[in-house]
Specification:
This protein is mainly beta. The chain has one domain: 6 Propeller (Neuraminidase), CATH 2.120.10. It contains no helices and twelve strands. Strand 4 and strand 5 form a beta hairpin.
Length: about 150
């Protein structure tokens, strides 16, 4: 399959025979996903992170190994520091720390590598339009100066 685009020079080519690199069907097992939303590949480590919305976790994939990077592996949700509620997006740094849009809790959570609990770095758990509130956070990233940037409706 080929496509020509005004945004890219030349032609783009996609293979018509895809391969599955993540997921083994719908479910809550370690190799399963339920409504994955945000994807992020950390450029230096080449680790893939997936915000698994309905399983309330962020999964980490590297060389065929799957780990839960944030939230609970058993898909339980909540608002305590060890749980997520509908994570919508994820951003990771080169040290394998992750920033998670915890949409259901109206917050941005920071999880250090191998941490069992996250830290709220933005938002207060309530929806709103004040400077310390989110209405509907959907994206997170860090700029070159390590400032957290959040897209919020």
């Amino acid at each position: 399959m080929y496509k020509q685009s005004s945004d890219c020079p030349g032609n783009l080519k996609w293979s018509t025979t895809g391969i599955t690199i993540i997921g083994n069907g719908y479910g809550s097992g370690p190799d399963q996903l339920q409504f994955p939303q945000g994807l992020f590949i950390e450029p230096k480590t080449q680790i893939l992170y997936v915000a698994d919305v309905s399983n309330n976790r962020v999964q980490r994939y590297q060389n065929g190994e799957i780990k839960t990077a944030a939230g609970q592996a058993n898909a339980s949700s909540g608002s305590t520091s060890d749980k997520l509620n509908g994570p919508r997006d994820v951003f990771a740094d080169e040290n394998e720390n992750v920033f998670v849009v915890d949409e259901g809790n109206q917050r941005i959570q920071f999880w250090e590598k191998n941490a069992k609990h996250g830290k709220t770095v933005a938002g207060n758990g309530s929806a709103g339009s004040a400077l310390n509130e989110f209405n509907y956070p959907i994206r997170v990233l860090l700029d070159s100066k390590k400032n957290i940037i959040v897209a919020d409706f």
